[in-house]
Design goal:
- The structure is a single chain.
- This protein is an alpha/beta fold and about 350 residues long.
- The chain has two domains: about 45 residues, no CATH class; about 250 residues, Alpha-Beta Complex (phage-related protein like fold).
- It is about 30% helix and about 25% strand.
- The strands form three sheets. It has a five-stranded mixed β-sheet, with helices on one face. A four-stranded antiparallel β-sheet has the order 2-3-10-9. A three-stranded mixed β-sheet has the order 1-8-11.
- α7 packs parallel to α9.
- About 0% of the residues have low confidence.
Amino acid sequence: MTFATPSVYKQTMDAIMASGQAGAVFPHAPGAVYGPGMDSGGTSTGLVFLAGELEKQDPRLLEPLTTITAPRDIDMKPGGGWTSITSNVFVDYGTSGSDEDSIMGSETTNIPVSQANLSKDVFKVHTFSEILRAPLFDEQKLQQIGKSLSSILDSGIRLHHAKMIDRNVYVGISKTGTYGLVNSPLITASSAATGAAGSTLWSKKTPVEIMNDINQALTQTVINSGWSLEGIANRVLIDWANYAYISNTPVTSAGTQSILNYLLENNIAKNQGQELKIFPLSWCTGAGVGSTQRMVVYRKEEEKVNIDHPVPLSRVLTAPNTGTVSFETVFASQFSQVKFLYYSCAEYVDGI
């Protein structure tokens, strides 16, 4: 098999570029094959142009891989407008007097009086802000190939905003001293029980021992809530490695049911009419004491834990900047820290 030499390519391309004859053909020896080979000589005479014309380009822009799970794991309360803090008011009830049972006889004169004690919790609100700067000439250049620089940067800001909310929900924002679902210092953290194999790790425990870890945590939320079933946890978050283990490992050698399905069908919350859900979460990896894997157990309900989202991500100001020959748009939003209204409805279990 023979190939045309670079000099032959150069002569042919010179002829094509000079005459504009698209029908010109390469001189070649019998059986010669011509591919897209290119050298410095060919590059200077138009082969770059031909290679570009023959390129099949995917018109999509491939963005970074990411997963946003905060809307799955917490209720977000929209609205309220620009603010500095958000708060909730709580009430405790009691009676005054020596008879706490409020049971009176025929000659009783000491009648207890009902009392109400009001208190308020205050939570921080974060203001997110970022500038979209689109240089005028760069915008014009991209429009010639069917793309918009402003649209690309807009998508980037929205992705960053979504990831900031995700971080805020799970671990809080360290510079503001806030915490999230996974690392609140006001939630009790305990170590998982040691199994028959001498380990707290789920990978070394039987399905019954894993179920016991979950049931113990669910029971503790009921005890902490004054034995009220309104406080029993209905959501479990664990690291991906343990989630994969319980999803793939059968309960018995027959392999008819995974440990995950066994846990979902036989936990005490399910027996009390509550639907328990178990989800994987990357933030649980190494979140426990000593960088161990942490199980987060809590009641996913707006009345128990939520965040405020007073202002959604919005374009608040757009103006030209003659110094940089660009248009600049300010994006801003507000969202609060995670608001645990009842800490009794949550529990951490480390070392799984």
